[in-house]
Every structure is written in C-alpha cells, then in structure tokens.
Amino acid sequence: MSRSLLDDQPERRRAWYTVQVKPHKEMQVYRYLRSTNHDLDVYYPSFTVDPVNPRSSRVRPYFPRYLFVEAILDDIGESVLRWLPGAVGLVCFGGEPAIVPENFIFELKRRVASMDKTGGSQLGGIKPGDRVRVTSGPFADCEGVFHTWLSGEDRVQIFLEWLGRQVNVSASAHAIKRI
C-alpha cells in the first residue's frame, strides 16, 4: 500500500483574488504585477472615456482601487500580493484571502468590453439636446433632455419636465438612456 505524500495535500488550483490598491494607483500596481516573474494573471477592469476635462485620464477603473489576480496562492506566497508598492493588500474575510468566483470575472470582462465599445457608459455618443429616459432612481421612467457631463465620476445633468416646469437634475450616467 504505497501512497504518495501529495495524496494527503489538498488540490492546489488557480483562483482569482482581489488586491486593494491606494487611490489612483491601479495602473501602477497593474504594471508592476505584469512585470513580475510570478505565475499569475492580472486583470485591471477599466474602460476608455472621452473626459470633459482634456487633461483628465482617458482610462477609468471599473472598480476604483481594486485589481484582480489569478494565481496559485500557495506557490507565489501571499506576501507577494500583500506588500506591493502602491497596494493596500489582499481583500480578506476572517483573515483568509477572499476567492472571487471565475464566472464573476468572466461576466465582468464581458461588461467592461461592452462599456468600452460605447465610450465608457451606456450613453454611447449622446449629445446635449438628445432626449433621454431615466431608468432608475427617484426619477425612474421620467423623460428629459441631456444637458452635460458633470465633473463627478459618471454623473450627468439632464432637464426634466416636472410638475409643468423644467427642472435641472443630476443623475448617474448609468441611469439614463437615449430615447
């Protein structure tokens, strides 16, 4: 009866983990992880936008301050991901690194690719003066006119007809669609 020592060890599989980074350091940590010789895949969910301010970055993170890494944590060691320059560390629950389901990463990649095709939001090419409908929030199902992007992250200003008056409303860019 011969058993290998490996039979007593749990199967070591690749899994996705989340790395929290310091504010505005996503690209720095992403590049650092891509340049290491560790056996890992790095996913930085981001999309390209046409910013209001021409000096602003055209690349925006889908999840500000977070990246995803696929690796066999036992092989590379947790410290590689916990003590990165620009990083806060691994997202953990109960002291254990949280595993992100693979189907979540797959769906996230699909959504981000879709957003990137439309210019970073569901608005894809919407211009001032275009008719829009609010899809969620307190003004859901109201129709109005798109006015402008606001300086806040993915916020827009629209004009709504409300109680017989035109009202300026600030809303999430993801809560409106062109009619």
What does this structure look like?
The protein has helices at residues 26-35, 73-76, 78-82, 102-117, and strands spanning 15-21, 40-43, 46-48, 59-61, 66-71, 87-90, 92-93, 96-97, 99-100, 131-134, 143-149, 155-162, 165-172, 176-178. The chain has 2 domains: 13-117, Alpha-Beta Plaits (2-Layer Sandwich); 131-178, SH3 type barrels. With 179 residues, the protein is an alpha+beta fold. The strands form 4 sheets. Strands 1, 2, 5, 6 and 9 form a 5-stranded antiparallel β-sheet that branches. A 5-stranded antiparallel β-sheet has the order 13-12-11-10-14, with no helix packed on it. Strands 3-4 form a two-stranded antiparallel ribbon. Helices cover 20% and strands 35% of the residues. Mean pLDDT is 81; it is low at 1-7.
Short description:
By secondary structure, the chain is α+β, with helices and mostly antiparallel strands. Helices cover 20% and strands 35% of the residues.
